[in-house]
Amino acid sequence: MSVYQQFVKQILNPFDLWRSGDYAEIQNLREFERTQFLSPEELRELVWRRLRNILDRAYRRIPYYKLVFDRAGLIPSDIRTDADMLSVPILEKRDVQANLHTMLDPEFPKNRLIFDKTGGSTGTPVNYYYSIERKWARQAAMLRHDRWAGYEVGQRFASIWGAARDMPPSGWKQKIKSLIFPKTLQLNSVQMTPELVFEFNEQLKRYRPPVILAYANALVLFAIFLKQRGVSAYQPKGIITSAEVLTLEDRQLIEGVFAAPVFNRLGCREFSVIASECEQHSGMHLMAEGLYIELIRGSRHTESGETGEIIVTDLLNEAMPMIRYRLGDTASWVTGTCSCGRSLPRIDNVAGRVTDFIVGMDNRLCSGVALATFIVSKRPSLGQIQIIQEDYGKILYRVGCGKDVPLQQHDLDFLREQTELYLGNGMTIDYEYVDSIPHEPSGKFIFSKSTVARKYFK
Ligand SMILES: [Zn+2]
């Protein structure tokens, strides 16, 4: 690292966090750096101490869980083993939607609550809260897992990610910060064309960030465009792919084109990083100090190697506990210990959501994850949405609010306006109303599917 980068890491960043009241992020990171190397027994002890605490708090303080536990004839002290957790009812996304306020700790200080919402890429948009303490732990967890890929605070960074629009820094503090801290170079995956990709590739070569973070599909598209034109790609030290399923074929393509290892990650808006690869690339280590993860099939836990649904209990969000939340993705356990020395359990074969690119009017390609984030999550009244594109210049919104319940005019206006904003003017929009949009028999949820865009991926 350069002297400047050391200065940012050791002095400026801690000072900035202290000034904004977020210094605990650094303390959390130190703690997570230590606990990843606990013995399996010590880690288990830590996880179970936190799990017992969250179950107990939820039962004593949260009206929703008091009711759920009472109905199931359970008290928290009944839960002593992994198998006992199976008796706690699953928390569905629709449960969170319907019980947002009774899931909140009524005594939790309102000024320490953070409100957030998910996009619609895994089925149902969800609103939720977490505590400021959880925010610090989330940031620290993300940083720990970024460091596995070779990133360090103070270094340059690049991302191929969705952004609503390029926002200049507002306010003098933000402006000063943007001048002092290394900026993040970003290619907006809301609009990807070959020209923008080539330009970004050149910017990367000049800026030289060690690590790139990208939506998996966006990076595949990026790699395809460069390969087709025979343009040499920028070679970072590491690439973090997230937010979308990464197939073995995609990984080989990306690693071949960028000549850098891929560190795949599973994360979501609700819990931030869930699991990611270490330098051994042998499955993904869980963020186990903050999340208790189960893989289930029906009413049992899966055997090792067997695919199951991911069920998440957040161990650190005391403001609004999420206990046995069905994520909508599937994975399998990896057995044995990882040669990196970390005891954090590992999962593999993560699958779940299909978020194809959609082709816009001027042939721009617009990331499905970005559409889920910037259209669906902005308008909870849209409910479940699926975007289907079978012909150029045309899309179908399938809306799961009921067969005979068309969207209201203001929602239709919003969809048209946003469609034009992201996909260009003149797109023909059709609607289909259904009772609900189920997951596929394979367990996948199709948020966006485009036979037009898939042609680019061949
Ligand atoms: Zn490892």
What does this structure look like?
This protein has 458 residues and is an alpha/beta fold. The mean pLDDT is 91. The chain is globular, with a radius of gyration of 22 Å. The longest helix is centred in the N-terminal third of the chain and has 22 residues, at 40-61. It is built from 13 helices and 21 strands. The protein is 35% helix and 23% strand. The two termini are 39 Å apart. It has a domain at 354-457: GMP Synthetase, Chain A, domain 3 (2-Layer Sandwich), CATH 3.30.300.
Features:
binds zinc ion; 5-stranded mixed β-sheet; 12-stranded mixed β-sheet; GMP Synthetase, Chain A, domain 3; single chain
End-to-end CA span = 39 Å
Could you tell me which ligands this complex binds, including any ions or cofactors? zinc ion
Rg over C-alpha atoms, rounded to the nearest angstrom: 22 Å
CATH topology of the domain at 354-457: GMP Synthetase, Chain A, domain 3
CATH class of the domain at 354-457: Alpha Beta
In brief, what are we looking at here?
Helix content is 35%, strand content 23%. It is of the alpha/beta class. The protein binds zinc ion (ZN).
Summarize the SSE layout with pairings.
Elements (H helix, E strand, L loop, with lengths): L2 H17 L4 H12 L4 H22 L1 H9 L21 H6 L14 E5 L9 E5 H17 L8 E5 L10 H9 L3 E5 L5 H14 L3 E5 H14 L8 E5 L5 H11 L3 E7 L3 E5 L7 E3 L4 E7 L2 E2 L6 E7 L10 E10 L11 E6 L1 E3 L2 E2 L5 E2 L1 H9 L8 E5 L4 E6 L9 H15 L4 E6 L11 E6 H4 L4
Zinc ion binds next to loops.
